[in-house]
Amino acid sequence: MDDDSACCSPSAGRGDGTLTPPGAHGGADPAALGMLLLPGGEFLMGTDDARGYPADGEGPVHRVSLRPFWIDPFAVTNARFGEFVEATGHVTEAERFGWSFVFAGLLPDDFPETRGVAAAPWWRQVEGVDWRHPEGPQSDLTGRAGHPVVHVSWRDALAYCAWAGLRLPTEAEWEYAARGGLEQKVYPWGDELTPGGVHRCNVWQGEFPRRNACEDGYYGTAPVDAFEANGFGLYNMAGNAWEWCGDWFSPTYYRGSPPDGPAGPSEGTHRVIRGGSYLCHESYCFRYRVAARSASTPDSSTGNTGFRAARDA
What we know:
Largest sheet: 4 strands, mixed
Strand content: 15-25%
Number of domains: 1
Strand order of the largest sheet: 12-11-10-13
CATH architecture: Alpha-Beta Complex
CATH superfamily: paralog of FGE (formylglycine-generating enzyme)
Distance between the termini: 33 Å
Shape: globular
Number of strands: 14
Helix content: 10-25%
């Protein structure tokens, strides 16, 4: 990955200990859970767009074939993740390590000094931050039950999926779902960021990181059903919060990945994240495009990374 990838979602490197997934309670009808059945088939994955990040391995464009699968129309919310925690007693990695990364602009003016990420000083290492306290011990989830859960690591997302009888989508499934039936478009709705002057996602407007004009209506996360769904009925596949995928990340994987149901490399150090977040801006992190990709270590957690779940059909 390129050196500026820390701007998106910094990696914590907090250790390689594993979490034991709680007992699954799978078997529920995915349609009854509100999941969407996507037909699968062939699509063109990746991009050769000059505005992309070659070091991220966004190309070459290649044809991929997928079997039908179920996927959540929304990212997992704070309310839903809370049900999982209440049922299982799961303790997230941010809680176990005692800290997580928070965007400095979301901290109160009188917040104590915190350590920053050298390559991206707007990211602050804040103690007492977790999914229930997204900006520190003084914060809570009031008014955010329907927002995407954040400050969850890849392992936390995997534990939720095990409990729910689901799984994380593969990177190929995620991109197919995000495209919503369109071919090689920049965004889930087409090639214009704001068609007709209408905002279709929650990203940064203004001069990052000093001024966010909030023209889309949000500073920080938005509700998971904000904005219009794509052609498949999925919401917020661009911006709002990065989403974990099941795959290991490799910048060279697309050059020789299998065309049928690719599931990523067999090993690696980072897991794929997709979709961008409320902090993305074309001037420095144009990764809210459908084909854009990034990655973080499986133990990392930030205030702009969540997930949605999938299931075999």
